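User: I would dearly like some help making sense of a protein record. This is the protein in question:
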Amino acid sequence: MQIKKVDVYPLGYEETNDDNAMRYIVLVRVEASDGTFGWGECISQFRPATFATAALIENGLANVIIGQDPLDNERLWHALRQEVWWYGDTGGIAAFAVSALDMALWDLKGKLLGLPLHQMLGGKMQERLPVCASTHPKASEIDDMAKELAGHISNGYQLVKVGFGKKGHANLGVTAERDIAFVRTVREAIGPDAGFIVDIGAKMHWNVPYAVRMAKAFAEHGLTWLEDIFHPDNFAGYIHLRQAVPELMVGFGERFWNMDDYQRLLEADVCDVILVDPGRTEGITGMHRITQLAARYKVQMDPHSWSSAINTAASIHVALVATNASIFEMKPIENPMQHELVEKPFAHADGWIYAPEGPGLGVDVIEATVQKYSLKK
């Protein structure tokens, strides 16, 4: 049995959960000599990165695995990382390419062996995870945004998460008084028991004194955690914030790439929860290793998946195998890459997510949808 070919699909689509902004991913389809195939994905996010990632795979990385035994997927993961030693073994676009190929190899292996991913990784440590509605509110009025978030809780989600600095008219993350009023109003709307996460994000540039002030105010309203407050290089800021506001948990790591990055993060003791998904952290192999590492540091893991159903499937499997998974994020509004891409779209069951059935990732990709959103016209 050998890997026969690798097909690469850069995709662009309007994300209904992000004010219909264009978002981008790269899918790969890895086929074995008997016709069995597996799907993988990376979260390239922006158009230039998407074409660059596709070019890396088509013009070199695919050749690393073609002709190889598809069951040797972890050996091939090392071979892919070695291939990019000059232009990406510390992260970036090469990590996207490795992620997509590694995910597809795991899916292919599972189909060849007739085993779901969670069994190949050692078996589930838990059967389900609580689901969080991961949102980008866009309304201009705080009451309207709070009502929207309360609606998600009424629809069965156990938590809500809000990104600051997003598109639309929300204007969150800019003014202290407005942000504090927003957090207070949302807590009143969703009730005392629902989880509530605030993601500051890359577009905000809070300094340490301001972040401490805001974290103290937010903590009064029972946040589950505060996320990605500073630039990923600012470990000192995270340390200061955690010392100043010890009652508030901190999530961190969305813009990290590999085991070395997360090793530094964990050794620095800068957060309570790491954000990690297989679409950017060198695939399922990378995410699984990072998750195991975090467990040794007693740090929780949030499978930070916000792209297609392929990445969702992989993230669920890896999270359920982990001993330290916390929640599972899902997009609450129907969108192309979750609801058009696969035969059975993911949905929570009474606020919980379970592993998909079937071998490999357990999803059946609709290839007509891949062609519909392909940037190769």
Observations:
- Residues 3-114+367-373 form a domain with the Enolase-like; domain 1 fold (CATH 3.30.390.10).
- The chain has a mean pLDDT of 97.
- DSSP finds 13 helices and twelve strands in the chain.
